[in-house]
Amino acid sequence: METASTAAPRQFHPFFISFGGALLMAALFTDYMYSSNALMQWANFSAWLITGGLVLALVSVIVLGVDFALGRAGRIRWLDFALLAAAVLLSLMNVFVHTRDAWTSVVPTGITLSLIVAILLLIVGLRGWAVTEMKVAERSSKQ
Amino acid sequence: MSAGAGPERFFLAAIAALAACSQRGGDPSRQYGPDPYLPEPHQYLLPPMSVPKAVGWKPGEAPSVPAGLRIQAMATGLMHPRIVYPLPNGDVLVIESNSPGTKPFRPKDYIQGKVKARAGAAAKGGNRITLLRDANGDGVPELRTVLIDHLHSPYGVAWVAGTLYVANTDAILAFPFVPGQTKITAPGVKLTDLPAGPIDHHWTKSMVASPDGSKLYVGVGSNSNITENGMDVEEGRAAIYEVDRLTGAKRIYASGTRNPTNLAIQPGTGTLFAVVNERDEIGPDLVPDYLTSIRNGGFYGWPYSYWGQHVDVRVHPQNPAMVAKAIKPDYGLSSHVAALGLTFSQGETLSPKFASGVFVGEHGSWDRSPLNGYQVIFVPFANGRPSGMPIPVVTDFLAADHKTVRGRPVGVALDRTGALIVADDVGNVVWRVSAATGR
């Protein structure tokens, strides 16, 4: 290979974090709808959205590991990591709250947790849905 | 039931561990009678539960009965027997049935499915009625035959005036039938529809005929634990219907009965009694299942309140006007026993202790730790009302360590000789309890 300027290596975990984050944030909307119209289907949507968000959180962790293993990831950003960890733990609690039956599956605890999670994820999202620094493009002169 | 595969077993163990963190139930005897102890309701992340594994009976094993009684298996290898119904000629009908199946709404429903399967509640029902003929009354039937096949989750039956009425989950069917007959081939004629799918959460339709035979009373369970499938699907549910036997015209006789799993007419007075299974997931000692006389037009609280005016905050919107109307049931059976069987005693056929009262088959459930129910009890009556502490009659369905369950009692009835017949839908057995001195 000739000396080349390579683009920053692409890391894959932000996609999965953003996907899961979107589902968890959507649960705030469906919780709000249920709290305003008491139609159970909205609460059912919330339960599925939070479950989906948690599954994607697990996938994100695996993909993050792969990003590290393949040397795609830069240094870890502990603030984003902590915000996401808090969002996942609160969502884990929230998914159990949403297994309750009828009104108290959402009001007041469920929708409160959904709101806190949505705020945490908003911050993480605006900061780029990543828990690591992007590796800067580096010039290699070897080979 | 086979044991779960590795991950599934781990998953159930994790759930059990989480559940163990929550409250344990107290002494059930505080919840018998007209004024049961009612603790404050709780909302859980994971409600208290424990799930015994269904293992069935080994050859020679049987439930225990008190001294002076003996128990024998009258029929084995049945397909989820739920109800036993003796006919005037001594033949016993066994209704083999299970839920028509419900579709999951939430992630929770998949997990509940696994729990049910472990406890032996997911086995396929026979959707048929088997006839047992024990002409000499020794408890060993000389004849066993399928009387009616290809039913649709049948449960209650009643024989009135040359007609056998069968309450499928979605309709009452009428079959011309003379006791002595061993096979019915004629298709049933639909008398009336009953509230059923597409959800059909509590699918059983208990049934009893009025003393004069002109009416059929039918118990219809709610479509949810506590309205979590929506208020609209509860229209016409959690009620006891009165159906005109000849025309099929029906009306709601009583309502607010969450799951009226069995009905019986009190001999002498003709009063309708019911056992009703109450709501889950607000505590190991809430809400007591109950035995009660049923008043024409009465409202018994579900979903808005329990045991009279105890409001359930899970229901939205709430309805204070209905809460005010709610009738307190007659007699608490303690919480999560899943009372499914009910029959009045007919004098001292088994023991002087059982002269006046009802036998109640308690299926048991997993919504409590420690487990409760899993036995047949006798509730004594005085002056025509349930009165005093119940007496355990058929016990030891559950292993001493509460980890495994060999059988679960459902329907109960007295046969022509006065012996107690018990359907066991996990052991797939029909048990017969008779006086030891009787023969």
Topology:
The complex is a heterodimer of chains A (143) and B (439).
Chain A lengths: L12 H25 L2 H30 L8 H20 L11 H18 L17
Chain B lengths: L5 H15 L11 E2 L19 E2 L14 E7 L5 E6 L5 E5 L10 H12 L9 E6 L9 E6 L8 E4 L2 E5 L3 E6 L12 E5 L11 E5 L5 E6 L18 E6 L5 E6 L3 E7 L6 E6 L10 E6 L11 E2 L3 E2 L8 H6 L5 E5 L3 E6 L12 E6 L12 E8 L2 E2 L4 E4 L9 E2 L3 E6 L5 E5 L4 E7 L4
Describe this entry's structure for a reader.
The complex is a heterodimer of chains A (143) and B (439). With 143 residues, chain A is mostly helical. Chain A has one domain. Helix content of chain A is 65%, strand content 0%. Chain A has four helices and no strands. Chain A has helices at residues 13-37, 40-69, 78-97, 109-126. In chain A, helix 1 packs antiparallel against helix 4 (109-126) and helix 3 (78-97) packs antiparallel against helix 4. The model of chain A has no long low-confidence stretch (mean pLDDT 91). Chain B is mainly beta. Chain B has one domain (6-435): TolB, C-terminal domain (Neuraminidase, 6 Propeller), CATH 2.120.10.30. Chain B has three helices and 30 strands. In chain B, the strands form eight sheets. In chain B, strands 1-21-18-17-16 form a five-stranded antiparallel beta sheet, with no helix packed on it. In chain B, strands 22, 23, 24, 25 and 26 form a five-stranded antiparallel beta sheet that branches. In chain B, strands 3-30-29-28 form a four-stranded antiparallel beta sheet, with no helix packed on it. In chain B, strand 8 and strand 9 form a beta hairpin. Chain B is globular and about 55 Å long. At the A-B interface, helix 2 and helix 3 of A face loops of B.
